[in-house]
Amino acid sequence: MVDALKKYWAVMAIALASWGVSLILHYPDMPWTVYSDVVSLWYREMEGGGGMPCIDFFLEYPPASCFLLAASSFLGGSSLASYYLVFGLLSLPAYIVFGLVIHRLYIGNTPGKFMALASPSLIVYGIYNFDHFVAAAVALSIYLHIRGRNFLSALSLGLAVSLKLIPVILLPLYLSKNPKHVVSGFLTGITPYLPVAFLNPEYFPEFYRFHSGWGLENAWFLWLSGDPFSTSAKLFGFWLMIILLLRSYFSGAGFEVKSFQILSAWFLTSYVFTPQMALWLLPTVPATGSLANLWPAVEISNVLIIYTWFTTPTPTLPWTLPQTAALVRAAALASIFFLSYRQGLHTPGVRNRIWVSKPGEPHIQQSLDSG
Predict the structure, then answer these.
(1) N or C: which end of the chain has fewer CB within 10 A?
(2) Run means of pLDDT, 10 residues per run, the chain, 371 residues
(3) Nearest in space to 104 (alpha carbons), one of 116, 89, 119
(4) Between the CA of residue 190 and those of 39, 152, 182, 205, 211, what are the distances in Å?
(5) What is the pTM assigned to this prediction?
(6) Whole-angstrom distance between the N-terminal and C-terminal Cα of the chain?
């Protein structure tokens, strides 16, 4: 009992420390300040008050992210510092939820658990954008699914999709168990889209135009074309994405590893893989077992992207430091992806394996068997 409490408080201490360091690291107008989208959005859209993002004016994020930004601006007032601090305080519950869920999800895997909790990317890209909220929602969704709470797990996934659209690719995994509850939970989770749909329906085609028109950013196949706006490179990534996603959906891995494979398949083939998106993988990395030993290479190269981004006027071109870091990141992530897929394909009985054992809780074995 005492050891369990010590582990719990250690988890909380790491989560709070990660939040605090990230908050300080991105605090605006300090000598040490590292760029963040949150501060950039203040100067670009929110300074002086510009109404409700996604409704009164277009913002390239899904509605829940817009509402978080609006709440930070409303509660923080006209000061950048207070706006940023409010956003930081709103972020604190996400760090706490993430810490608690990772602790419960990987209670029998202490090294993997602390690898996720003490992630450098969680600090450098934490109070940076909205991806720490997504990571917490995805982690909670996976945990609830394993617990058999189908409605709540789908609701949490829906909330993640209301913050960033891409996690919707995980939805097919959930539909294999009680699809009615899953669909109703997911629809409940994406209700933040409703006010935008009613009040500003033009948001949706504009959202599509904005993102479809974006060039290649941190995609490894940029090195094949040399042109960040190459249509053929985008098409190459799209067809490769279909292949890898299908492979991932039908792989023989357990639920957490399959989630890792699906997200990795997207990141390895999407024409945009911003470094903060790597946070979404943190809830699943410990489940890859010994393959997680390769994860530090992903972390180091991922952090180097932002630290080298402003060293060149053309950070999206090959042979620059940020794109070199992105290439190393892709190689490390691809190694984990393909090795995990190979394990699921060739290891007997892997479909029923508990990738991260949790003594005394047989329901996890049951859940993974069905996945």
Answers:
(1) N
(2) 76 94 96 96 81 93 97 91 97 97 90 92 97 98 95 98 98 92 97 97 97 96 95 96 96 92 98 98 95 96 97 96 98 97 59 38 34 32
(3) 116
(4) 26, 13, 12, 18, 20
(5) 0.91
(6) 32
